[in-house]
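User: I'm writing a tutorial on reading structure tokens. Could you give me a worked example: one chain, its sequence, then its tokens, then a sentence or two explaining what the tokens reveal?
Assistant: Sure. Here is the example chain.
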Amino acid sequence: MSIRAEFTNDLIISNGVWVDARAYGSALNDTAIQAAITVIGADNKVLVITPGTWTITNNLSIPANITVMVMNGGLLSVGAAKKLTIIGPLDASNGQVFAGDGTVDLSAMPGAINALWFAGSDIGAKLNGAIAAGGTYFEKQTVIVPTGIYSLDTCVNLAGKGAGGDHCHSTIDFQDSYIVINTSGTPAFDCIGSSFITFRGGKLRASGANTPSSCFFMGPNVTKTNSISFTFSDIKIWGTFSKAAIIGVGLAPLFILGDTWVYNAGLTLSLTRRNSQSEVSVYDTIHPTLP
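And here are its predicted structure tokens:
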């Protein structure tokens, strides 16, 4: 004798460790999610966001005791002038999770922010979404780009991110991705006025068709008088840039390193302001050819 169970219906779990938000509303929206949050209360549970577009038309905050699990195909669309804040863990795959013209705040979320969770036609636009979700000044955050091959057509805006109450102390981790830069006439990463950002583990190549001005465009944060530092760890840069691969402005002397160089693990650029002057120190190895 055999015993077989077949599930032919979509089961909605409303009272378990996993809580399906669909159980608490007639539509995929913030009303259903808020009702599920209310039922969960202070318990440590997983809130499941099922496939489909969930419209957020009111400000919504999901507390730290709730893990948000977004299934493949689930999309949280935040309306204009509205804000979705996730304070607890977010469990999602390497696909788009957020949409809409509103604000996504993951600055208090534990763990890294995945650039692929955000909308955009290229990895630059997705990185801008992830950086914005990391808070106004992008402090003490890690953004990852899962291993892959990407086109970067949009300048990544890190300008002024260290202008708040602290330096950034944040990391962009490319996870050994290969990125082709197509930001014609503009830098790939605008870091003017930022401080203490680490760029890790990426292969960055300038496109021959849409020549970028530089890969990294850097300058001191005028609101800070102490050390300004950028760290490159296992970053390789090559190709033709109209100005230079890395540009540092407002320095004495002006810091420019050649346009077809490759920078390997451990290269650190340190800018220290002293008596309205700046010193530039480059540590470890700079390689003018590919390894």
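What the tokens reveal: The two ends are 65 Å apart (CA to CA). Residues 141-291 form one domain.
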